[in-house]
Amino acid sequence: MNRSRLVQLLGMLGSDFDGEVVNAGRLAVRMLKDARTSWSEILDGGQERVAVEAARVLLAENERLELENRELREDLARVRRPPLPQTWTLPQTPGEQTAQAIEWTAILNDWERGFITDMSERWRPPTERQQECLDRISTKIAGVARARGLRR
User: Fold this and answer.
1) Are 42 and 20 in contact (CB under 8 A)?
2) Whose CB has fewer CB within 10 Å in the chain, the N or C terminal residue?
3) Which of 84, 122, 87, 125 is nearest to 103 (CA)?
4) Which helix (H) or strand (E) element contains residue 60?
């Protein structure tokens, strides 16, 4: 039903000319019959029914998108998580510690990954504090390697 036309006809019911009022009323009633609806549906429940149905459709679509989003996040996490190495040896130098940490990136936290990336770009020997961080990361890697049954 053309709601803007119905609004226009209802506005004509306030005309000073009786013929115009009668014609507007008849046209409005004919529009209702053609649309197979009633005044009560138009004034009370028609819009509410449409709104409820639209809300149901949107809710179902939202639930589908949330599920798809969750699945995509899980897929992304799997892709971002590189596999752990199958071998492990005790690193002897800071360069070997850094190289090993790069291979074991999957078990490092964000700060450790950033630190190792920074260390891999340096050409100088690490400072005492940097060496302490490298040692902590190497100890962490060794613990995971032992837990996985990997030996030196």
Assistant:
1) no
2) C
3) 84
4) helix 46-80
Global pTM? 0.48
Q: How far is CA 11 from the centre of its chain?
A: 47
Q: Which tens digits make up the pLDDT trace of 71-127?
A: 999 888 777 777 888 888 899 999 999 999 999 988 999 999 999 999 999 889 999
CB 88 within 8 A of CB 141: yes
Which two structure tokens, joined as six digits, stand for 115? 């630190």
What does the DSSP 8-state code read for residue 106?
A: G
In this structure, are residues 91 and 97 in contact, taking their beta carbons and an 8 Å threshold? yes
CA trace torsion 127, 132, 135, 136 (10° rounding): -140
Of 146, 151, 123, 118, the C-alpha closest to 134 is 118
CA distance 34 to 29: 9
Q: How far apart are CA 111 and CA 52, in angstroms?
A: 49
What CA–CA distance (Å, rounded) separates 19 from 24? 9
Helix and strand element counts for the chain (H, E):
7, 0
